[in-house]
Amino acid sequence: MAIKIGHASIDENGKVSGGKTGDQTGKEICVRNWYSKPWNVYLECTDKVLADKAASIMECICADDKYGYDQNQRLTGYNAIVKNGNRIHGAEGEFDCSSLVSTCYKLAGLNISPSCTTRSLRVALLETGKFKMYTDLAHLTSDKYAKRGGIYLAEGSHVVMALEDGGQEKNPYSEPTRTISKGCKGDDVKWVQWELIEDGITEVVVNSKKEKLTIDGDCGPITDAAIREYQRKHGLTIDGKCGPKTREDMKKR
């Protein structure tokens, strides 16, 4: 079953602007099931208290039909809430998808502008130091890795906020306690393989042949090549070993 998300979509006339203030259809700004779009970035808030507060604000705005969708009036919702002493109930105004998401985090206490667009939101959130970014297919094509307050972003197009956690936990394998090098086996290696696949490294070339990386706990030639690809991709020393620096870089992603 899909998780719930909060989003702003379209006005009562099926247009991006020109409608009446407020939600005339119950669908302009609402809570609904997660849906697949060509998301190119998933942003996870690392501060769970902040994320929960932003999600709660999203839920309150979505539940109040005094707030609707209008790109030309996209900041009137935020300005009305601020004028109302940061109280959602008792004010009215309009949002678009990106001003709604940025408003929720702004009101939750994050140092961010409520006027962010889908083109500027990623950079603005990452600059706060409170978010980490995922661009692998596992995070973008399903909601199973969603965390409450997480943001699915199609830059230049659309953005929504996750209101629930997905069903899949991050890396179920134990973190390696030593350098992972060729010949190693076990859960330490599975942790590395999981992180490599999460980063989008699912295939590598070994002896001029394309090979698929799997989570099998065996650090043979395929895993060794995948580690090298990860190190090359992220500007690390390319030695094919998952030592302390490579491991720490994986933990940050």
Describe the structure.
- This protein is 32% helix and 17% strand.
- With 253 residues, the protein is α+β, with helices and mostly antiparallel strands.
- Strands 2-1-8-7-3-6 form a six-stranded antiparallel beta sheet, with helices on one face. The protein has a two-stranded parallel ribbon with strand order 4-5. A two-stranded antiparallel ribbon has the order 9-10.
- Helix 1 packs across helix 3 (97-108).
- It is elongated and about 65 Å long.
Helix content: 25-40%
Proportion of beta-strand residues = 15-25%
Secondary structural class: alpha+beta
Number of helices: 8
Q: List low-pLDDT spans.
A: none
Give the mean pLDDT.
93
Distance between the termini: 26 Å
Radius of gyration: 21 Å
What would you call the shape?
Answer: elongated
Number of strands: 10
Element-level helix/strand string: EEEHEHEHHEHEEHEEHH
Q: Give the neighbour order of strands across the main sheet.
A: 2-1-8-7-3-6
* Biggest sheet statistics: 6 strands, antiparallel
Q: Could you give the topology of this structure?
A:
Elements: E1 4-8, E2 29-33, E3 41-45, H1 48-63, E4 67-69, H2 76-83, E5 93-95, H3 97-108, H4 121-127, E6 131-134, H5 137-140, E7 151-154, E8 158-162, H6 187-198, E9 203-206, E10 209-212, H7 221-233, H8 244-251
Parallel strand pairs: 4-5
Antiparallel strand pairs: 1-2, 1-8, 3-6, 3-7, 7-8, 9-10
